[in-house]
Design goal:
Layout: H1 2-10, E1 29-35, H2 47-66, E2 75-79, E3 85-90, H3 92-99, E4 104-109, E5 114-115, H4 120-123, H5 132-136, E6 143-148, E7 189-194, H6 197-202, H7 219-228, E8 232-237, E9 240-245, E10 253-258, E11 260-261, E12 264-265, H8 267-280, E13 284-287, E14 289-290, H9 300-310, E15 314-318, E16 337-342, E17 346-354, E18 357-362, E19 374-378, H10 385-389, E20 395-399, H11 406-417, E21 421-425, E22 441-444, H12 446-458, E23 463-473, E24 480-481, E25 501-504, E26 508-511, E27 517-521, E28 524-527, E29 530-533, H13 536-553, H14 559-568, E30 581-582, E31 588-589, H15 592-595, H16 602-605, E32 610-611, H17 616-625, H18 630-637, E33 656-659, E34 670-681, E35 687-693, E36 700-704, E37 707-710, E38 716-726, E39 733-742, E40 748-756
Parallel strand pairs: 6-10, 6-13, 7-10, 13-15, 15-16, 16-25, 19-20, 20-21, 21-22, 24-30, 33-40
Antiparallel strand pairs: 1-3, 1-4, 2-3, 5-14, 8-9, 11-12, 17-18, 17-23, 19-23, 26-29, 27-28, 30-31, 32-34, 34-38, 35-37, 35-39, 36-38, 39-40
The chain binds 2-acetamido-2-deoxy-beta-D-glucopyranose (NAG) (8 copies).
One 2-acetamido-2-deoxy-beta-D-glucopyranose binds near residues 667 and 668.
Protein name: Peptidase S8/S53 domain-containing protein
Organism: Corchorus capsularis (Jute)
GO biological process, one term: proteolysis
């Protein structure tokens, strides 16, 4: 039960077309094809004409058998930035012929991609008078490209009140299409495009229900307004989470690139969307989607985002919702930011009043409920619909016996019986799966339930009233790591610690298409302009917006510098001052494989003191050290020649992970893992930084030198961090933190350090 429900809650969208559609031309499939541009004959006017000629040359070689002509419709996309190459719909024979064509490097089959499914600004410490908002001018003129399910342009969150003209560098468009007029864009929503050629090629008989950038799913409207929605007063979800809604960067612009459809999602459409976003002039890309268990050179998102990084575009992605198991994370790509999901200090519920007492419980019932005192009865295990029906006009109270599925069963019995309301006394840790009930339901902790039951048992005529639509703030502890957020290490590059940071992902309020039902009251769908969603899909756009703020304040910073600022300034303690806890690990302290460097802190991210920068060449050196073939590396870098003279797994990253795993090791024999890192002072003035390392169980960490003196801005200093440990570490994961702190105590530059015996394969 719980597992199924959790899946629904977390994996809000799961695009999987293969089960729904069968491929008409059984032998045809979409391929992303990498070509060596240096092999292009001079006679061709451009890449696209060369690709078309290459494709039709395949048809001549096949013509004897099929007499088919490969017309230009075979070519789906000719890419400009993300790869040198194209995508095309090809039969196996055509693919084999293509492999012999001049300039062919490699090809990958198209893949189906899935998305990972207002208060958060206050929780993150943003305010009008100081810090990230005013310093960055609210992200003004930073353009965030969102690759998602489209937008609902009429949403109040896309109002452009108070916004200046669209930045002159913008080259994007507002494409018209089904129920989407190009005049629907404005100074906030500055672009809207859609991509589905590959989806249609794979399913020739498909009918695209909404052939435009209009959102029929809701996900894209929610993520894009989380990143950069404008102010909307009196936003709420049926009275829950009431307040003024706004995105993380209310001054930033949004451009939507719809590539996820009700009918499915194809990687070559996503690549085309990223390609266009680069051409259009986006500054930040936000992608709440990903592919599990793929190598970097086979991951279209990793390949396409390499081109974005080369153009200085910051890329934020979601870690996935497959936690709490280890190595479930996707987008563990060294050049993007990978975001985990945490909780906020906010809960939704109801207050019950009875006798002279009152208790609060959890609830998200969207309907209206009488405020009068109603008869209430204790039904203990609530395991019989027939018994419950006998008291249908009363509020029933159920004690969850705490067995597997018992809460689920009670919930269903009460729903079927149709009692006035159901009160469930439970310690089920997945209770949030039930709160959005289609009937009036309240979930009480045992101690509060005991007070209620005692009252009922002692009263001749027990009555209670319930007030729904309550928002409780200040939940402790918070943030916590959600159970569902996917965990590292990275499948595709285990030498870089992932995820990078955590951001709010649980019960996030953001805009929603007004024609899409958000919940049910009894049998009826109910509608709202705002919806509460949970998932790493919701965490990712928070950081996209915050990255826009950092970029607004520091337009010259590289994507790696912005990532470093976000990571080294994040928080590792919660609102009780204790280490952030992990809901997926029975509230034990969260490790960096769950939350990365910590919970993102936008105000501090603007002034990190030091940064760990990395260039495109540094990423190339890493790819060389991963022992990829030349063709595999070229697939990612697109360069005609590659310089692998300095291979190194030691990317200049603001976190550290070392593997101690040698089952054949003799007892007590030790080994040392070394990292060389370079930090850049990004503040005017001279500073002396001193290193401290928290003790890490099972290993010894040293830093040399442990004092760094900077004479001025942009000065770089290197240091070596060594981890000495047994060849075979006892712990699966052992961790601590390296902190560089300036003598004035103004800048604290923290990096997680992980030692693991975990097998990464
Ligand atoms: C697609 O349409 C054609 C022509 O209408 C039909 O023959 C074929 O069976 C359809 N294929 C699928 C998979 O529905
Ligand atoms: C083969 O294609 C050519 C050109 O489209 C056409 O003229 C010819 O009739 C076709 N032959 C057959 C056997 O279909
Ligand atoms: C778009 O909307 C405007 C204003 O409502 C209207 O004048 C125009 O004709 C519409 N364009 C299209 C292509 O429907
Ligand atoms: C609840 O009451 C409000 C205000 O009267 C009304 O607009 C809304 O439709 C009601 N909700 C339901 C589910 O009946
Ligand atoms: C319901 O639970 C009670 C104990 O609370 C038990 O005696 C009874 O057998 C259960 N009934 C059913 C139908 O499971
Ligand atoms: C939950 O409640 C049940 C029954 O009251 C109890 O057996 C169980 O130990 C409780 N679990 C937790 C985690 O408190
Ligand atoms: C790459 O190959 C070298 C030489 O065979 C080997 O020592 C090294 O461990 C390999 N690196 C990785 C990341 O597999
Ligand atoms: C390993 O080290 C422990 C503690 O330092 C010691 O008690 C033990 O005898 C050593 N074992 C071997 C095989 O040297």
């Amino acid at each position: 039960m719980a597992a199924n429900h959790v899946k629904f809650l977390c994996v809000w969208l799961s695009f999987s077309i293969s089960s729904v559609f069968t491929i008409t031309l059984a032998q045809s499939d979409n391929y992303i094809v990498h070509m060596d541009l240096s092999a292009m004959p001079k006679a061709f006017s451009g890449q696209q004409s060369w690709y078309l000629a290459t494709l039709s040359s395949l048809s001549t070689s096949l013509v004897a058998k099929t007499n088919a002509t490969i017309d230009s419709s075979k070519l789906l996309y000719s890419y400009n930035h993300v790869i040198h190459g194209f995508s095309a719909s090809l039969t196996p024979e055509e693919l084999e012929a293509l492999k012999k064509a001049p300039g062919y490097i490699s090809s990958i089959r198209d893949r189906t991609i899935k998305a990972d499914t207002t208060h958060s600004y206050k929780f993150l410490g943003l305010n009008y008078d100081s810090g990230a908002w005013p310093v960055s001018d609210f992200g003004k003129d930073v353009i965030i490209g969102v690759i998602d399910t489209g937008v609902w342009p009429e949403s109040e969150s896309f109002n452009d009140g108070g916004m200046t003209d669209v930045p002159s560098k913008w080259k994007g468009e507002c494409e018209s299409g089904t129920q989407f007029n190009s005049s629907l864009c404005n100074k906030k929503l500055i672009g809207a495009r859609y991509f589905n050629k590959a989806l249609i090629a794979r399913n020739p008989n498909i009918t695209i229900s909404m052939n435009s950038a209009r959102d029929t799913e809701g996900h894209g409207t929610h993520t894009s307004t989380t990143a950069a929605g404008n102010y909307v007063k009196d936003a709420s979800y049926f009275g829950y989470a009431k307040g003024t809604a706004r995105g993380m960067a209310p001054g930033a612009r949004v451009a939507m690139y719809k590539a996820l459809w009700d009918e499915g999602g194809e990687s070559s459409d996503i690549m085309a969307a990223i390609d266009q976003a680069i051409t259009d002039g986006c500054d930040v890309l936000s992608m709440s989607l990903g592919l599990d268990q793929v190598q970097l050179y086979e991951d279209p998102i990793a390949i396409a985002t390499f081109a974005a990084i080369e153009k200085n575009i910051f890329v934020s992605t979601s870690a996935g919702n497959e936690g709490p198991d280890v190595e479930t994370l996707h987008n563990g790509t060294p050049w993007v930011l990978t975001v985990a999901a945490g909780t906020m200090d906010r809960e939704f519920g109801a207050t019950m009043s009875f006798g002279s007492n009152s208790v609060d419980g959890m609830a998200l019932y969207p309907g209206n409920f009488s405020s009068t005192q109603l008869p209430i009865v204790f039904m203990d295990s609530c395991n019989s619909t027939a018994e419950l029906r006998k008291v249908v006009d009363k509020i029933v109270v159920c004690q969850d016996p705490g067995k597997e599925d018992s809460l689920n069963d009670q919930f269903n019995f009460v729903q079927v019986a149709g009692n006035v309301a159901g009160i469930f006394i439970t310690n089920n840790s997945n209770v949030d799966v039930f709160t959005q009930a289609p009937f009036p339901a309240v979930f009480l902790e045992q101690k509060d339930g005991d007070i209620l039951v005692k009252y009922i048992k002692s009263s001749n005529d027990p009555k209670a009233s319930i007030e729904f639509k309550k928002t409780f703030l200040g939940t402790k502890p918070s943030p916590t790591v959600t159970s569902y957020t996917s965990r590292g290490p990275s499948y595709s590059c285990a030498s870089v610690l992932k995820p990078d940071v955590m951001a709010p992902g649980d019960s996030v309020l953001a805009a929603w298409p007004s024609n899409l039902g958000v919940a049910r009251v009894n049998e009826d769908l109910v509608y709202s302009n705002f919806n509460l969603l949970s998932g790493t899909s919701m965490a990712c756009p928070h950081v996209s917006g915050i990255a826009a703020l950092v970029k607004g304040a520091h337009p010259d910073w590289s994507p790696a510098a912005i990532r470093s600022a976000l990571m080294t300034t994040s928080d590792v303690t919660d609102n009780t001052g204790k280490p952030i806890k992990d809901v997926g690990r029975s509230l034990r302290p969260a490790d960096p494989l769950a939350m990365g460097a910590g919970h993102v802190n936008p105000n501090k991210a603007l002034d990190p003191g030091l940064i760990y920068d990395a260039s495109v060449q540094d990423y190339l050196n890493l790819l060389c050290a991963l022992n990829f073939t030349e063709a595999q590396i070229k697939t990612i870098t697109k360069s005609s020649s590659i310089d692998c003279s300095n291979p190194s797994l030691d990317l200049n990253y603001p976190s550290f992970i070392a593997v101690f795993r040698d089952v054949t090791a003799k007892a007590n024999s030790t080994t040392v893992r070394e990292f060389t890192r370079t930090v850049t002072n990004v503040v005017e003035g001279s500073f002396t930084y001193k290193a401290t390392v928290t003790p890490i169980k099972g290993v010894k960490v040293t830093v040399e030198p442990d004092v760094l003196v900077f004479k001025g801005k942009n000065e770089k200093k290197s240091f070596k961090l060594s981890i000495e440990g047994p060849r075979q570490l006892d712990e699966a994961v052992s961790f601590g933190y390296l902190t560089w702190e300036d003598s004035g105590g103004k800048h604290v530059v923290r990096s997680p350090v992980v030692a693991t015996s975990y097998i990464i394969e």
